[in-house]
Amino acid sequence: MYLDFYGLKEAPFAITPDPRFVFLSERHRDALAHLLYGIGQGGSGGFVQLTGEVGTGKTTLCRLLLEQLPQDTRVALVLNPRLSPVELLETICEELKIDLTGRRGSLKGLVDALNTHLLEAYAQGLRVVLIIDEAQNLSTEALEQIRLLTNLETPTQKLLQIILLGQPELRDLLARPELRQLAQRITARYHLTPLSVEETEAYVRHRLAVAGCTRMPFTRLALRRLHQHAEGIPRLINVIADRALMAGYVHNRQQIGERDVDLAAQESLQKVTRRWPRPGVRTLAALLVLAIVAAVALWPVPDPPQPPPPKPGPDAESLAPLPRIEDLLAESSFGLHAAWTSLLALWTVRAEEVDVLTAMRCPPQLAPGLYCLRGSGSLAKLQTLRRPVILRLSAGGREGWAVLVGLSPRRGRLLLGGERIDVSRRDLENCWLGEFFAIWQAPVFLPAGNLKRGDTGPGVEWLQERLVQRGLLPAPRHPAVFDLPMEAAVRSLQAAHGLVPDGIVGPETLLALTSDLPGGPRLRTRLE
Predict the structure, then answer these.
(1) 264 with 217, same domain?
(2) Which tens digit of pLDDT belongs to each residue from 264-316?
(3) Is residue 208 part of a domain?
(4) Residues 40 and 176 in one domain
(5) Of 192, 211, 233, which one is at a domain's C-terminal end?
(6) Separation between Cα atoms, residue 509 and residue 53, nearest integer Å
(7) Which pairs count as long-range contacts for 365-370, CB under 8 Å and 24+ apart, including other chains?
């Protein structure tokens, strides 16, 4: 009901694991990299274990993983592991579409059918992966049967890769002595922790932006209170934020404050009330004596007069207050045309080379060797890209476009109407919805599409050279081929720049690859 009231196209805080709304914090990116590693390592045969508290995003990461699987991968996904060993094997075979005629109920028949299927997949160059969600619910017998599946192999290759997703109890389960053989085969472990305060704010902004929000309905204090109540758990953030938006709509509030979040949390979260035993007479008497002693000991004593504080020196925080973005937007209008004119001027692009109207559409290639990207992210992500970008700002019911030319821990420097203006970083985070435009220079022979595993040619040779210069590959090889080591190096680069570590070189990864090249304007990092 509140969608039109807050200018939303769809509900931003649904608890279903929709990959479109996925927000990858640093820990989520690492977790996804572990899962992709588990898929990509092929025939090593080890287990990959991902654990996390309830609601931290394990299932969402699993869905995101399924969307990024290589074409040569076949997956058996088990969502309900409360099964006997025979039932578990039947579920795995059904997921892989194996004919079980005459084999149901027979442990040997099921294993033989699975082994035959794995050998056929291996002969066709396919890899088979088993993913078990809620793995903490597996019985000891079922876990032992899963371990035995890793014995299905050729003389040189394991035929099945297994990924276990579960709550923290999974770690305790695998620590049992009777499961030590399975624990020894876990080659990658990762525990997914809740979001930090800053990540919670970025998470809320991201979901609102995906849902089409053009202004931020939560105040900064409300976001911090939201993190406090949800303890950084994304599912609880969704529940409380959705309830707060509903309450704001009912009470006709354009801005949702910390009090609204408190009430939403009280209504949404179940509080556990502990019942303490009623104290006896002796206990009450002892507590009364302790209270009297404590009152005497803690009776306040006047403090001696303190000398006046020293006067601040020239390096103290005595600067004039920074202008507010809301006031700047109220005074003048800052259009996209002016912002693109300023950004192209920073790159010394002449009008006859690139028309501003063409640049505003942001085609993948603006001119030979000059590329354009329309993306989304956080200020931390923009810092890693190191280039000026165009930001869409919204405050006080007004919108405008500015060029971000500097970013420090406390400030942002904007180019507005040809004038450089410093604003607080906090104000910038509140008024920016996460959308940006960027341009960068790269060789003209780069392909229009993505670079991925199996590709060759000049673009891959340039990619190899950049990865070697960054220390992500040991040495160049000729001819250059986009192989597994190069894919792993690309994932490392993507993770370092806050990108999805999918191993595919698209526009954002190309921009990251050129962020340290000489030439062109740089994003300033020292503004104070």
Answers:
(1) yes
(2) 998 887 653 334 444 555 555 666 666 665 555 555 555 455 555 444 444 43
(3) yes
(4) yes
(5) 192
(6) 31
(7) 365/448, 366/439, 368/444, 369/441, 369/442, 369/443, 369/444, 370/439, 370/440, 370/441
